[in-house]
Amino acid sequence: MIDIQNISKWYGQFQVLADCTTQVDKGDVMVICGPSGSGKSTLIKTVNGLEPVQRGEIVVDGTSVTAPGTSLPQLRARIGMVFQNFELFPHLSVRENLALGQVKVLKRARDEANERGLRYLDRVGLLAQQDKYPAQLSGGQQQRVAIARALSMDPVAMLFDEPTSALDPEMINEVLDVMVGLAQDGMTMMVVTHEMGFARRVANRVVFMDAGRIVEDCGKDEFFGAPRSERARDFLARIL
Ligand code: ADP
Ligand code: MG
């Protein structure tokens, strides 16, 4: 579903990604972890073309992200992305937030967009909040709306960049529970997170990054049981 081949990226002289290669199969849940500044956010943003790369190729569901002629807006419509800071439209109600992309990008009729949006809102347990504005919701609720909004676009894969790290501790689980449900339903997911409990529960692959490189790329059991690199062992020792 996602094929990342030998990508490298520089900001000026600084190399942020160094020859990264990995693949995500349909239904895979890949957790990406590693120290702050190791390039996790940059890597995940290259997948939907939010960050261009200078070398290498990325193909998502048969479409090259890195080829010059690719329409990035169309590609992004097929890849859901959820960030640390919710990023709902503050001036729109929850229902309008859910419908907007469907109407504007997928050209769905307003009624159909509302119906689909509300179906996903129900799925994240927030149907009763449909007329509220983002500022009237808790952080955990806003993040669940952001997930519902991404799902209402019928994405082929979902990208998450530290979706719980801006949340108060008591709200983390309500967001992780939604993500666990998605994973169990077979959604293809790349998840940057420090929540190793989540990784243990639903990841089938773990990528560990350090200084722009993919240092480990293996099955979950291998990663938690016997990471090959000393850096990954150090990292696990510090956060577990
Ligand atoms: P992570 O998500 O693992 O913390 P990032 O991908 O955000 O890492 O950043 C990797 C490195 O690239 C960091 O050293 C960061 O300071 C640098 N970086 C990120 N964005 C930019 C940018 N727009 N310009 C210059 N350097 C950047
Ligand atoms: Mg980051």
Automatic annotation (TrEMBL):
UniProt keyword Protein biosynthesis, yes or no: no
InterPro entries per record: AAA+_ATPase, ABC_ATPase_HisP-typ, ABC_transporter-like_ATP-bd, ABC_transporter-like_CS, MetN_ABC_transporter-like, P-loop_NTPase
Claim: Oxidoreductase is one of the keywords in the record: no
Domain of life: Bacteria
Principal subcellular localization: membrane
Gene Ontology CC annotations of this record: plasma membrane
Keywords on record: Amino-acid transport, ATP-binding, Cell membrane, Hydrolase, Membrane, Nucleotide-binding, Transport
Membrane topology designation: Peripheral membrane protein
Gene Ontology MF, one: ATP hydrolysis activity
Residue span(s) of domain ABC transporter: 2-236
Protein localization: Cell membrane
EC number: 3.6.3.-
Family statement drawn from the similarity comment of this UniProt entry: Belongs to the ABC transporter superfamily.
Name this polypeptide is given: Amino acid ABC transporter ATP-binding protein
Source organism (scientific name): Pseudoduganella umbonata
